[in-house]
Amino acid sequence: MSALVLVLVTMVLLVVAYNTYGSFIARRLGMDDSRKTPAHTMYDGVDYVPAKAPVLLGHHFASIAGAGPIVGPIFAAVFGWVPVYFWLLIGGVFIGSVHDLSSIMASIRHRSKSIGEIIEDHIGLSGKKLFLIFSWSALLLVIAVFTRIIANTFITVPATATASLLFIPLAVIFGFAIYRRNLPLGPTSLVGVLLLFGCIYAGLKFPVTLSFNTWIIILMAYVWVASITPVWILLQPRDYLNSFLLYALVAGGVLGIFFANPTINLAPITGLKTSIGWMFPVLFVTVACGAISGFHSLVASGTTAKQLNKESDAKIVGYGGMLIEVLLAVISLMAAASLSTERFQEMWSKALYVPIFSEGVGSFIAKIPLLNIPHDVAITFSALAVSAFALTTLDTCTRLARFSFQEFFEIAKGREKSVLASNRYIGTTVTVAFSVIFLLSGKSDAIWPVFGSANQMLAALALLAVSVWLAKLKRRNFYTLIPMIFMFAVTLTALSSFIYQNAVKANYLLSVVASLLLVVAVLLAVLATRSLTKPSSALAVTGEGMLTMAGGVDEEIKG
Questions:
Q1: Helices 68-76 and 321-338 meet at what angle, rounded to 10?
Q2: pTM of the predicted model, to two decimals?
Q3: pLDDT tens digit sequence for 357-398
Q4: What is the CATH number of domain 3-556?
Q5: What is the pLDDT of residues 492-521, one digit of tens each?
Q6: 422 and 127 Cβ atoms separated by less than 8 Å
Q7: Is 429 exposed, middle or buried (0-12, 13-18, 19+ CB in 10 A)?
Q8: Helix, strand, coil proportions of the chain in percent (round to 5)?
Q9: How far apart (Å, rounded) are the C-alpha atoms in residues 79 and 76?
């Protein structure tokens, strides 16, 4: 089987999906550019800052991509390439992209607050607190996983460390040029991208070598600063510039596959059960971000919705951004599938998922005749790109965890907030401290399956919140309700399994965390069911045809 054929088919299907099903979902959600978004009405210069669609897509895509769509498909490829490929397409188009777009829209219609705030408005304060406990716990797992991945990558490929460190001041300068000097986006972006690749060249020439623990300290200090800094200074410009690195990798991978035309060497399917468990549910929680990711809802409602310039931008940012991630995940799968069976199994058994990707994609890029890039340089560039993606996810994740922490301690609306709710330094410090506990537990290598389950359960909860919101607006919600039911079935099964497995292996911390996540998710589902079956006393239709909800959120009745 030719990898080129599969990639071309994927690209055609994704374009068709964006212009058909994506447009259908956008209409159902009632986008309206005449309504000012919270980025304008609640502008504060720190979190609420309107961004142009290309800039916001760059931030959103770089934040959601990370190493998830790269590691997940390779990890799950042990089941064979066919089930992974079809789940990426079906999940990405009908579940993941819908989840991301609907999360953005639901958030901006609720003052760009998190999914937890939406749950409070429609399910109750107890539901919000349960969700925030779940999301904060899941984010700690994400921070632990990605910190270890980045530190190991810096050690294995020291050039990535130099480039990543140089990216930071470059992003600050770029943000200052755009937002304080009002320089034009196009020319400034061109200069920024050239300097970005200059940082990569400097990394190849002057690699930085430090110990694992030293990198952990540096990374934790960096995310602490990134979490409290206004988005226009570091987070937004860094993610925007890094998105070009990601686009270059995707384009290089596609072009490389076109010229190399590699053969798929992996078996189409190896069986319903492998060394990592049964295909259901393990396949669906280990592929993770390439098909659907609950982490995306936190990005969508935590940072993206606060920067959305107009409602119609949500389609390209939310639905379109997820489809690009599907393409990246397919390229990652093809990179693994192009290796010899023996080579793949050898590297997979050693958990060398990022090297599998960089070796495969690097071999593709090296085959592009006009670029003439040496094979070893192409492999290094691929590893650099993965590192950059993981770092953008890490700093965004820490900021989102801070949001969740602060929202948990918010006092009832209209009253003064407590110091834990208003002080971003405390929330960031507590988040970083608990993330370090996971890292120092010595069990980080076992986190990925639990992280995958928690991540997909988070997606189910986000779809639950959106479904309840739409139901209370008297709108049809089958396009979020059906995916939500499926994701609950997958993740409840997976978490139950991982609770037992980690307990048997004496990974008690992960077993307890998985148990907590399972209990919280079930309680939330129960509260949501009760909310929908109770009389809608919190809703009242005004004389102007508007539906006024508890919490002061107004929604126009459409359809």
A1: 40
A2: 0.84
A3: 989 999 999 999 988 888 888 888 888 788 877 787 788 889
A4: 1.20.1740.10
A5: 999 998 888 888 887 788 888 889 889 988
A6: no
A7: middle
A8: 75, 5, 25
A9: 6
